[in-house]
Amino acid sequence: xxxxxxxxxxxxxxxxxxxxxxxxxxxxxxxxxxxxxxxxxxxxxxxxxxxxxxxxxxxxxxxxxxxxxxxxxxxxxxxxxxxxxxxxxxxxxxxxxxxxxxxxxxxxxxxxxxxxxxxxxxxxxxxxxxxxxxxxxxxxxxxxxxxxxxxxxxxxxxxxxxxxxxxxxxxxxxxxxxxxxxxxxxxxxxxxxxxxxxxxxxxxxxxxxxxxxxxxxxxxxxxxxxxxxxxxxxxxxxxxxxxxxxxxxxxxxxxxxxxxxxxxxxxxxxxxxxxxxxxxxxxxxxxxxxxxxxxxxxxxxxxxxxxxxxxxxxxxxxxxxxxxxxxxxxxxxxxxxxxxxxxxxxxxxxxxxxxxxxxxxxxxxxxxxxxxxxxxx
Length: 377
What we know:
By secondary structure, the chain is an alpha/beta fold. It has helices spanning 9-16, 34-44, 63-73, 88-98, 118-126, 149-165, 182-188, 199-207, 233-246, 253-278, 284-307, 316-328, 330-346, 350-360, 362-373, and strands spanning 21-27, 50-56, 77-81, 103-106, 132-136, 143-144, 178-181, 213-217, 219-220. Strand 2, helix 3 (63-73) and strand 3 (77-81) form a beta-alpha-beta unit. The longest helix is centred in the C-terminal third of the chain and has 26 residues, at 253-278. The protein is elongated, with a radius of gyration of 25 Å.
């Protein structure tokens, strides 16, 4: 007969010391900031049981090593070092799911978010007034010391697009500073994308209005060290995320980027096909094959730079990946040429035949690329 397990005094003592709040900090090349942020958290959360989980994407500057040294001195500090994975959203998801507190906050390591607002955010969640508290840049009381006009304009535009297209009701869905009940986040986690930078937008859009959200103003500080990791590629991530949510997550963000590259590849394919037929008078089968090979090469380069930039191949791995890309796409290439030649034989319209052949291999190329070319290591 099974007996109920009664907590020992030691167990009760451990439960009393469990953190109430987990602060998740995604990092990449932030070794000069993590110690400063830790000290700020220590001062701000002095009367709260807390832990901080730094999720580092194997920073070349050794950020993870600095965090590890902090963790050796303070058990409230934890480090998750990710190898072969990149991206702020994925780091936040892994960090939150690896934490142990009922409430979790996400804050950048660049010292621009106002950590002094954390106790207020926690109080709002504990009171039951909200499931989500957002540090907002678009409500009265917000101040900025380090948000340049260009970045502010881009953020405002993206916010307006997100609010109208995804019907997101909060004022600042692009914020990277928020706190949420852990149980609510776990309900939404399977729907979230691990790619991109806008984790809050993904959370709010995936919740479909079921999260009670409160927004509070804060002071956006100036970056102290390092450089911002936000670049022009973030725009692609954002647009891909919006499209993914508009399709109710039927189409993944990565597939959307892969398909977009494939669309550019189709233009390359048809251009090469036209040149081979019109300028070199090549037989159609040979011209189609040449177009396919050139298009595959351009697709590989663009996918490596855009679609799989979190797993980007470099050096010898780049050449090896290109060869693997040719191999896994060979079946699609054969089908491509076969279908195109068949269509052209029945109806000699070069662009129609070329398009029919090129579209044959899209799904195959995407599936096989993820398995054999940009596989996670």
